[in-house]
Amino acid sequence: MALSVKKAALWRREIVNRPGTFAESLKPFSKAGVNLQVVMGYTTPQGTSGAGAVEVLPISDAKAEQAAKEAGLHQAKEVHCVVAVGSDRAGIAYDMANAIGAAGINLHFAMCQAVENKFHAVLGFDSEADADKAVGLLSKI
Q: Cα(31)–Cα(47) distance, rounded to whole angstroms?
């Protein structure tokens, strides 16, 4: 199975790193019955006053957008994401990273995982042009 590759908007919210803030950020999605494909929560490097962030995708319809706004999330205009899904195999993450690097494209972030023989990656880029170029490159893998 070839990779299915498409662009997706990342939505994010900065949070205070304390118990319950991650759950608070996800509650509107749960109440609205919105099924998110990717949910990330993390703290920023130490020394920055206990801050963190919640990031989700996709926000693909009005119901999801309303839940995102209720949760205090906004579309992250500073990062442009590509989602790749397909059959897992040894070396697929390397092949993707190598194709992107060989094309001179810098990654903002990469999150890759395999579950039950299915590979799923979310890659972030600094510009829409880089994301567009990456879609073309990754579609050939």
A: 34
Separation of alpha carbons 90 and 79, rounded Å: 28
- The boundaries of the domain holding residue 108 are 78-138
Residue 115 domain flag? yes
Q: Closest Cα to residue 53, out of 40, 63, 64?
A: 40
Query: What's the N-to-C CA distance of the chain in angstroms?
Result: 10
Instruction: Pull the structure tokens for residue 76.
Output: 């992250």
- The full 3-state SS of 49-99, as one line of letters, equals CCEEEEEEECCCCHHHHHHHHHCCCEECCCCEEEEEEEECCCCHHHHHHHH
Is 34's pLDDT higher than 80? yes
Q: What is the DSSP string of 8-40?
A: E--EEEEEESSTTHHHHHHHHHHHHT---SEEE
Are 93 and 124 found together in one domain? yes
pTM equals: 0.88
Average the pLDDT over 74-78 and give the result.
96
The three-state secondary structure class of 2 is coil
Distance CA 10, CA 57 (A): 5
Residue carrying structure tokens 């879609």: 135
